[in-house]
Amino acid sequence: MLDQWTASGTLAPSPAPEVPTTMRAAVMPHAGDAEVLEVAEVAVPLRINSEVLVHVAAAGVNPIDAKTRSGRGVSAAIEGYPYVLGYDFAGVVVETPYAAHPLSVGDEVFGVMSVPRGQGSYAEYVSVPSLQVTKAPKALTLVEAAGVPLAALTAWGMVVDVAKAHEGQRMLVHAGAGGVGHFAVQFAAYFGAHVIATGSPRNLSFLRGLGAAEVIDHTSTRFDEVLSGIDVVIDLIGNVHDETGTRSLTVLRPGGLLVNAPTGSWDTLAADAAAAGVRSSTYKFIPDASTLAVIARLLDSGDVRVHVEEVFPLDRAADAHRAIESGHTRGKVVLQVGALPL
Question: Which among 33, 183, 188, 312 is placed 20 to 30 Å from 294, CA to CA?
């Protein structure tokens, strides 16, 4: 039984929803190509301490998932196989730690897992620390909400926490139409920065719609030949393609800032930036529910939106990874895990 508050402020028991002992999950039995992902029956996680048990409706798919599956990313910290990937989730609360907890059974929520410190969100249930989950935006479906957490928190950290986006600031966002990029463009524009975004021809009008003041077609124009005096570069590519990171240093003003996110994309960033007379930092997202709650309010107000490019069923997790690895996804890719509505 779960204790719940009554209208008079006293505690009264209410029946807990039935939670099975096993669940479906997309697992990787070992590192490898996308084909290694398979649906299997695994144990439902046991909720402990301050964790919240969530029945997952959908899970976001991120580039770090594909890197980790391939044996890169954070795979070195995986302690055993088979393993369930996935940071992002959205779903419905089925167990809480105590009656007066801010989240109640039946609440629609979204959040992030601590992969690889435990199993991930490509599963029907997750048990997640309270500080990593919050109420989902009312304006979004759970599928849309699942595409938000990691990408939006990464973009917020880079643009707001590190770069301090503000009016008059000139900010260049690489890969502005991608998962993190499309949030970075919106956050920068929301806080008044003059945003310049790079993208492919099919995404130029999309980027303008997100708030980019200028757009650059990377297939026909080399950004370092047309830009200079940039205050901040939000680097979502690094040097894995056409030396994008190194070339970005040349467009910054003296003392300007480059913030790089993709894991393993630029090992010599700090030294290269120092030699060029500019500042630099890598960035790794912080799974903070309080920041995610702020982002949820921006989504509800319509000041920010999420673009979900494609939704795959759980048994097509391999196809979702292939889509991410193509490098051409606009916005987010999401796995539908549970039946909707729950």
Answer: 312
